[in-house]
Structure to design on (290 residues):
């Protein structure tokens, strides 16, 4: 695989196509080759694995992933960037190119190509992405509802979001997204990434967020429909995170079409934000069987 051209060459190609980066789409290009290698190395794909990359951009990270993985599903929403990346990596057979919004499935679910990206026999499904800030949260939630949970996700996101996802119960940043992710994944904020390595430069600091599947976690035996049910349940509880379960549990149970279970007085006086992810799973299970 040949080395990529400098960014100035890509900028000239983008100018020729009339391309201007969109802040709405989060089009901030990561330029540092060492960071592309770092993200690919953290994901650790092998020839037995399938990698989904969301937000291909100019294909810089795609190049690193394709050099390691057996298959890369490369998703890009912008037709001009999709064209440039395909031209740049035309000699790489391991890439399945997808032009479209990653959240263009029914009801803003995942694109069908992502939903169909099951791990191969004996291999893993990995997700690696420089995620647009505006849709990072919804994308994370949707990845957790894939038919097969990814073994690992390595995501470049806004640092504020990474801190929320990785926050432990009891921390001020702990919320519904924290609980949802941590019920299925071990979340780790790996390193900060400053705005100087992007073009255009974002106004915020980014961070590498790593998620590792909890193979023996409390939802390990639950299918995609069950995980969606849990997500709805958690979102409903955290809409009134500071109110006690005595007040909020009935609405959360109703949101998933279940009756609320009876709670002991001490548990009924607790708030959603005081419950660790595994406790929330236990509460959801009690609700679904109550």
């Amino acid at each position: 695989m040949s080395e990529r051209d400098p960014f100035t060459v890509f900028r000239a190609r983008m100018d020729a196509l009339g391309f201007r980066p969109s802040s709405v789409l989060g089009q901030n290009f990561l330029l540092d080759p060492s960071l592309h290698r770092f993200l690919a190395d953290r994901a650790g794909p092998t020839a037995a694995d399938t990698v989904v990359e969301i937000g291909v951009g100019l294909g810089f990270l795609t190049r690193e992933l394709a050099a390691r993985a057996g298959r890369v599903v490369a998703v890009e929403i912008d037709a001009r960037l999709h064209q440039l990346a395909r031209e740049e990596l035309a000699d790489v057979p391991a890439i399945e190119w997808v032009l479209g919004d990653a959240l263009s499935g029914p009801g803003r679910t995942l694109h069908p190509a992502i939903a169909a990206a099951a791990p191969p026999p004996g291999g893993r499904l990995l997700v690696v992405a420089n995620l647009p800030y505006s849709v990072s949260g919804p994308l994370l939630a949707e990845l957790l509802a894939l038919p097969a949970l990814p073994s690992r996700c390595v995501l470049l996101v806004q640092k504020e979001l990474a801190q929320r996802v990785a926050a432990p119960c009891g921390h001020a940043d702990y919320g519904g997204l924290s609980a949802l992710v941590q019920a299925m994944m071990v979340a780790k904020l790996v390193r900060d990434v400053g705005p100087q390595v992007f073009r255009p430069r974002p106004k915020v600091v980014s961070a590498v967020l790593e998620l590792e599947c909890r193979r023996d976690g409390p939802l390990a035996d639950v299918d995609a429909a069950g995980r969606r049910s849990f997500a709805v349940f958690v979102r409903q509880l955290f809409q009134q995170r500071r109110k006690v379960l005595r007040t909020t549990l009935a609405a959360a149970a109703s949101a998933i079409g279940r009756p609320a279970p009876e709670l002991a007085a001490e548990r009924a006086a607790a708030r959603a934000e005081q419950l660790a992810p595994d406790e929330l799973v236990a509460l959801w299970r009690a609700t679904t069987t109550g």
In short: DSSP finds twelve helices and nine strands in the chain.
